[in-house]
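Re: export button greyed out
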Amino acid sequence: MRHPQAEGSDDIQALIALMARLPGLGPRSARRIVLHLIRRRGDQMAQIAALMEKVAQNSRECLCCGNITDRDLCAICTDPNRATGEICVVEDVADLWALERGGAFRGRYHVLGGTLSALDEIGPEDLGIPRLLDRIAGEAVSEVILALNATVDGQTTAHYIADALEGQSVTVTGLAQGVPIGGELDYLDDGTISAALRARRRL
Amino acid sequence: MEWQAEGTVLTRRPHGENAVIIDVLTAEHGRHAGLVPGGASQKRAAMLQPGARLALRWRARRDDQLGTMTAEPLRLRAGLMADPLALAGLNAVCALLVFALPERDPHPRLALATERLLDLMDRAADWPADYLQWEMLLLDELGLGLDLTACAVTGAREGLAYVSPRSGRAVSRAGAGEWADRLLPLPAIMGGAGDNRGRGLAEGLAITGHFLRVRLAEQMVGRPLPEARARLLRRMAR
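Workaround output, generated via the alternate export path:
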């Protein structure tokens, strides 16, 4: 049951309701956050509000790769040290950020913005796959790494792109699948164990 | 309300942050949806992929509710993801079943045939001819089955060479006469014999595709056939 008078003004209630719709938050955690921000409204809340407004106004998709940036081209696409001839294709910006956190890849990216889905009627044009193919044809790309999720939709998309690149002078690779760091075989599903066995390597 | 059964995942959609809604095919309860709380977790994501065979328990307060499902893996069929043709086959099978079957309408023969077909795909066996038989069974289960036992014109059981695109009945070469060019060629593979690949398979899939498109998609569902089937055919033709 709601207690509007106990939760401050209509604006505060509206803010709590908006916060509660964010990923990872519910009404209870939204109330806690809003209350915390109101207590720190002089510094933290004002800073967050100013930054949110700035990000809302300036953020956009990189015209080249689809990463989130505040310019036409993102820092990765304009970095001359990353023009390695390798393009890593990912499903979502969150995947790009995850790979960047790992720090193992020094090439450039291409964000599809989703995967092919027969049931949701998402086709190649909806994902900007033609734009990726144009980009590969236009740049001096030697390798395309398909870093897509190990799901049915992810792998269907990977095979589709690999087919589309057949006959071009570019190496198409996919991420390895197998035992994660710190993983114990006893706790792995049989699909992962099968994939790990197929991808075994000489020590 | 509660039931327990084995079923195969056809679709998986996120619901909120932690749950997923899965659509499964069971022999006893047909195509059936259910909410899996915690289904989006890393631990459960692998077993809730399309094609996975699960031991399911469905519960709801009333029969018409979505209800919740708990699932234990039986066969994950990971081999499907490694083979592009098998993956295209899996996508076509799941998409056609979701497209064609009404919810909670049991089709035990089709469920059994689907299991068998997915197992063949998972084992990387030579399954395209089985896929054609599966599409014929799908049409049959929907009440759109082909009648390939005798000629619709002469009644002859030998020399069947065509299928009528209107009635779905076989026509013999003698019975076709000057109408032959308006009929669909009937390959031997549709009787369970003949070449498993190549022209016979393509002609067979053209026949099932015609009836899926005209009778199912246009007349019953009112939407085009799922693109996944066309992708499978392109992959088979490579």
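The domain at 2-76 of chain B is CATH 2.40.50.140 (OB fold (Dihydrolipoamide Acetyltransferase, E2P)). The button fix ships in the next patch.
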